[in-house]
Amino acid sequence: MPTVAAIEATGATPVLSDVDPATRTLDPSRLGEVLGENTRAIVPVHLYGQCADMTPILEIARRHDLKVVEDAAQAHGAAFRGRRAGALADAAAFSFYPTKNLGALGDAGAIVTDRPEVAEQARLLRSYGERERYVSVRPGWNSRLDTLHAAILTAKLSHLEAWTERRREIAARYLAALSDTRLGLPVEAEGRRHVYHLFVVTVADRDAFREALGRDGVQTLVHYPRPIHVHPAYEHLAARRPPGGVRAAVRPGRQPAALPGARGARDPGCDRRDAARSPDVGA
Ligand SMILES: Cc1ncc(COP(=O)(O)O)c(C=O)c1O
Fold it and tell me: What does pTM read for this prediction?
């Protein structure tokens, strides 16, 4: 939702493309279906904490003279072939919403780029297009990061790597403990460092699965209950899906649910796996 909202806020027209069912990130092999003469940029979302498959995406962008903007809102510290999310394309956006891997105490975010002209425009947009106080050289808005949040983020930044390692440890425990169940488990693609913003499994009967875990004191969450093009505000996107459909985004019979994976979790759900394996769950 926010990715599309941001694109529309620029006046551009978002067009949906399908994801790879294993990683849930943009499937480069499906991109050709939606590129057109009006296409200006590709926005891969590094979903759940794993980078999209950037090499072919950047290659397609180069061939068609397109910009690439990473949505790195869920991917602080993630990497693709040794390079960090945020340093993979023309520009990237990070969210510091409190629940993100690096979170402020309220809404916050940052744009990252190595293009001076993009940095200059971002700085102008941030504060009413002012290059100097009370001189607006272009229209903008107020999107300044509060000093308090900046201070909190600066202090938390030095812990990010340790927190990320903790997330990866919890994920490794889940993967080992749940490998012989019928749950669909997250895949860390070769050459990518997953930072497990969310640990999302897929399951056949999600309600029964969530209820069974809930009875055992393990909370699960659903991100996101419905695809964007069925929301009343975004029904217009239904017509802008790839001709081959969004096959991987909407998979009949398998529904995603996130297991608890916060860095502070002392007793992650993988230690209660009997609930996840019970016969009435039909995972
Ligand atoms: C993938 C993705 N993109 C964009 C955003 C938007 O970030 P924010 O809530 O800071 O505007 C979020 C977080 O909500 C997100 O998860």
Answer: 0.92
What is the extent of the structural domain holding 60?
2-157
93 with 189, same domain?
no
pLDDT for 251 equals 64
Q: Is 95 touching ligand 1 by the criterion CB < 6 Å?
A: yes
H or E stretch including 277? helix 273-277
Position 282 scores a pLDDT of 34
Looking at 128, 157, 186, which one is the last position of a domain?
157
Q: Contact at 8 Å (CB) between 258 and 222? A: yes
**191 and 143 together in one domain:** no
Angle at 33 between CA 249 and CA 66, to 5 degrees: 105
pLDDT reading at 272 higher than 80? no
Nearest CA to ligand 1 atom 15: 73
Domain check: are 12 and 40 in the same one?
Answer: yes
Instruction: Place 250 in a pLDDT band, splitting at 50, 70 and 90.
Output: low
Nearest atom (ligand 1) to Cα of 100: 13
Question: What digits encode the pLDDT tens for the residues 234-245?
Answer: 999 988 778 777
Q: Is the shortest distance between the CB of 25 and ligand 1 below 6 Å?
A: no
Do 200 and 222 form a contact (C-beta atoms < 8 A)?
no
